[in-house]
Design goal:
Elements: E1 9-12, E2 18-21, E3 33-37, E4 42-46, E5 57-60, E6 66-69, E7 77-81, E8 86-90, E9 101-104, E10 110-113, E11 116-117, E12 120-121, E13 125-129, E14 134-137, E15 149-152, E16 158-161, E17 181-185, E18 190-194, E19 205-208, E20 214-217, E21 220-221, E22 225-226, E23 230-234, E24 239-243, E25 254-257, E26 263-266, E27 274-279, E28 284-290, E29 296-302, E30 308-313, E31 318-323
Antiparallel strand pairs: 1-2, 2-3, 3-4, 5-6, 6-7, 7-8, 9-10, 10-13, 11-12, 13-14, 15-16, 16-17, 17-18, 19-20, 20-23, 21-22, 23-24, 25-26, 26-27, 27-28, 29-30, 30-31
Length: 325
């Protein structure tokens, strides 16, 4: 890439190109964006956002545009139009959020939930309607959380799991790491408690498998640090069950469902270049190829040809890597 980006987003467009937007470089948020073209293997600049932002969300809408929302404690939102290569303002969120989750619902609307508002973690949730360009309130989370996951289930509901509740002192570990989970139902607009995970975890991944179950893996656990454990959520029974563990503990990593049904987990620290594959049939993780030495993966995007674009940073250097299944 042309720019170092921490806390950026990467969104697969209908054209097959990947929009990489915003992030910190490394201490100041940027409004710039660029496109990755798998056909040429190159990044090229595209229009800049109306606001500089990092730790925001980017959601591909049903009309092919991308909703960029929040980040850097900002309530503004904007739309990227791939046909024009430009960003334009849309309605603002009700609360300026940072590190929230954004989930495209089956009805085409977007659920934004949790995160930081100022220095406080919140139960805030709201809905963006592309038809009106406005954000409206919906039911609140039962538990305030950040660094959680949000997974769209096959029946249209959304599983919210884990995360934490703020930092325990300046630069300290999270004050409270969560095992709790809850379900958002778009039909009622309400969150209801779900069964808790077997382990509390934050900065982990959640991946919807082809069998309809959700694989939760890794994360940070105080005082033990990064964990290698994983578990499965079954929407049909509402129960969690243990599954095989990764070869190494990871947090702040990526998990990507591949076309063959396996899940690629990558990164979790500069000193952890070994990627792994989870096989739902055997319930095991196995080692796969090494990433580029020194890359700290920020995003992972499944390309149309089945490869995975890993975008991250080296030592003050923007880097990208491709995984071939």
């Amino acid at each position: 890439m042309s720019t170092l980006r921490l806390g950026a987003t990467a969104t697969m467009l209908n054209s097959g190109k990947v929009l990489v937007a915003g992030g910190e470089t490394p201490d100041t948020a940027t409004a710039t964006a660029e496109l990755y073209d798998p056909a040429t293997g190159t990044f090229t600049p595209t229009g800049s956002m109306t606001e500089a932002r990092a730790s925001h969300t980017a959601t591909l809408l049903q009309d092919g545009k991308v909703l960029i929302a929040g980040g850097s404690r900002d309530s503004s939102a904007e739309l990227y139009d791939p046909a024009e290569g430009t960003f334009s303002r849309t309605g603002s969120m009700l609360v300026g959020l940072d590190a929230q989750t954004a989930t495209l619902l089956d009805n085409g609307r977007v659920l934004l939930a949790g995160g930081f508002a100022g220095i406080d973690y919140v139960t805030q949730a709201e809905i963006y309607d592309p038809g009106t360009g406005k954000f409206t309130a919906t039911g609140s989370l039962k538990t305030a959380r950040v660094n959680h996951t949000a997974t769209l289930l096959p029946d249209g509901r959304v599983l919210i799991a884990g995360g934490d509740q703020g930092q325990g002192g300046e630069g300290g570990p999270p004050a409270r790491i969560l095992a709790s989970a809850e379900i958002y139902d778009p039909r009622s607009g309400k969150f209801t408690p779900a069964r808790s995970m077997a382990e509390a975890r934050t900065e982990f991944t959640a991946t919807l498998l082809r069998n309809g179950r959700v694989l939760v893996a890794g994360g940070y656990q105080d005082p033990n640090g990064d964990t290698a454990t994983a578990e499965l959520y079954n929407p049909a029974t509402g129960k969690w069950s243990r599954t095989g563990s990764m070869g190494t503990g990871r947090s702040e990593f990526t998990a990507t469902l591949l076309d063959n049904g396996l899940v690629l987990v990558a990164d979790g620290g500069y000193s952890n270049p070994q990627a792994e594959l989870y096989d739902p049939a055997s319930a095991k993780f196995t080692a796969t190829g090494h990433m580029v030495a020194g890359i700290g993966v920020e995003t992972a995007t499944l390309l149309a040809d089945g490869r995975v674009l890993l975008v991250g940073v080296g030592i003050n250097t923007p880097l990208a890597d491709l995984y071939w299944p």
